[in-house]
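Example 3.
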Amino acid sequence: MRGWHGAAEPRGRETLVRNPETTMAGKPKLHYFNGRGRMESIRWLLASAGVEFEEKFIGTPEDLDKLKNDGSLMFQQVPMVEIDGMKLVQTRAILNYIATKYNLYGKDIKERALIDMYTEGMADLNEMIMVLPLCPPDQKDAKITLIRERTTDRYLPVFEKVLKSHGQDYLVGNKLSRADIHLVELLYYVEELDSSLLANFPLLKALKTRVSNLPTVKKFLQPGSPRKPPLDEKSLEQAKKIFRIN
Amino acid sequence: MAAKPKLHYPNGRGRMGSVRWVLAAAGVEFDEEFLETKEQLQKLQDGNHLLFQQVPMVEIDGMKLVQTRSILHYVADKHHLFGRDLKERTLTDMYVEGTLDLLELIIMHPFLKPEDQQKEVVNMAQKAIIRYFPVFEKVLRDHGQRFLLGNQLSLADIILLQTILALEEKIPNILSAFPHLQEFTVKISNIPTIKKFLEPGSKKKPPLDDIYVRTVYNIFMP
């Protein structure tokens, strides 16, 4: 098998199995349960980049077992995305690949560093919001209070300040990057939690509007797109069953 | 850039451990300013040195980098520890992210309640032996070369070695079923820059102990 630049590919690339169903020209295929979870940021990024994709939903623990048993999951976990002949796992690895491929990762190492810092901060806040449904009922109020505090005191001020400092339309390099897409996704979740949390961040609100109006994002925000709704009771129970939580 | 990177963190492994490993492996000398008190942390926060009010923070090349993965990526990129192309970079990412999930258990371990700590050692061992080590053992066995990517050192090798050695401290025979990982451990440990880092007197920190845990609580708890 020949790799890039014609160099012989080292043996041992079986984890990057060439899948006959996904040729270079084929659409990426996402493997996850039918809900946001850790796959949603990947859906956002692909959609914003204008990339059409397919989804194979895991509905039962047996579905997940099947994926594990046929060697498709490097660490026995999802998300997994079949793309360009590879079976990618680990959310960050998948996002990094997509961002690089579609030129959403800045123009040089310093811009990448800025994008990484902003993205990692957003991921920390997003994680808190994402795992909230799994929180025991007696701890929920305290968790929500903490999320509100972190949102208005730690995270949103940073991004508002970045936009204010350079007055440009996007966070890094005067160009749309993954940082803007991840941030806008996060702002939608903050708004779902409590729209008043965005009150003191005019530049973030403007960014949200601006990015939401980009044709690819606009399409993704419409009903019938692959965008997933918040987890309801039924989906939460299903997810717990599939992933054998509790 | 002539100035050495400067690391801001308590005097212990924690989340700065991987950063020290990568810098050392890349042969980069660095300085450390150890956080010991809440007042020191406050000073860094008030002076706007910490983007999200948190450490690790590394002053490097005129930037104040925060977020462990951002720092690791920057250093790895700069020192060609990400393979030759996007595919190798992506492989490196997958290996590193998996290993960091395992390393996270080790980092959090001292902060668990004493009655939960022994159970967690068992959990770590199981995860390592069932989920992570087999992947890397197979990679090494299949291509028969020195490094995870083949013939080139990458961030993945460094983070894996760090994790293996940390696990061996708690579970000495953890590699007993993995001959290729045993060989890997020896070979990577003998790389001159890494060998130096593994010698006494280097900037590698000892295993986390109660003193470190107390220091961390004093600094970070409200």
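Chain A is about 50% helix and 5% strand. The first strand of chain A starts at residue 29 and ends at 32.
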